[in-house]
Amino acid sequence: MKDTELFGRLSKDILESASFAVCKTIFSHGSISIYDHSLAVAQLSFSLIEKSPAFDKACVVRAALLHDFFLYEWHIPGKRYLFHGWRHPAIAAKNARQIFGISDKEYSCIRTHMWPWTLFHPPLYLEGWVISLADKIVAMREALLCRGKRHSLVDPHSRGLL
Predict the structure, then answer these.
(1) Contacts with 65 (C-beta within 8 Å, 6 or more apart), sequence order
(2) Which of 8, 35, 95, 131 has the fewest beta carbons under 10 Å from its own?
(3) What CATH number does residue 139 fall under?
């Protein structure tokens, strides 16, 4: 990623919000927080498209940052977390719309980022394909780097974080 200034302008409102800061307390893969995972996905997505005028860069950065904005610790056993892989894109898109007022295009990119897991919801925009690919690359890297490393499974609701 070369244009860090543009990335910073496009991501500032999300990265500085208290709502997004909650993602530091929710884990993704091993000991990686949703915050760190989402930032890595946004940075990779942006670096893949930053030289192309064909992409909506604001959409890519914002949707990538919010693609896992589901706001619950999904590793805790229970009915709510069953089928997390299939359900969280819709939950994240809804939360992002309510809290950040995202566009329809950003909503679609978040909603479809888990394709092909969400079989009937493939990305509708090039930006969505980029985010989906970047998410898979980052998740694979995190899973391989974090093998055997686990976080403590403390529900953020019980700590008054959500």
Answers:
(1) 11, 14, 15, 20, 38, 39, 41, 42
(2) 8
(3) 1.10.3210.10
State the CB neighbour count (10 A cutoff) for residue 4: 10
Q: Which residues form the domain of 99?
A: 4-145
Angstrom CA distances, 93 to 79, 100, 108, stand at 21, 10, 8
Number of neighbouring beta carbons within 10 Å of residue 40: 20
**Number of domains making up the chain:** 1
Distance CA(44)–CA(65), nearest Å, equals: 11
pLDDT digits (tens, 9 = 90+) for 150-159: 444 344 444 4
157 is written with which tokens? 């609701």
DSSP assignment of 31-88: T-BHHHHHHHHHHHHHHHHTT-TTS-HHHHHHHHHHTT---S-TTS-SGGGTTHHHHH
Q: Could you read off the pLDDT of 106-153 as tens digits, one per residue?
A: 999 999 988 877 777 889 999 999 999 999 999 899 888 765 444 443
The two three-digit tokens of residue 128, written as one number: 């969505």
Which of 45, 47, 65 lies closest to 126, judged by CA?
Answer: 45
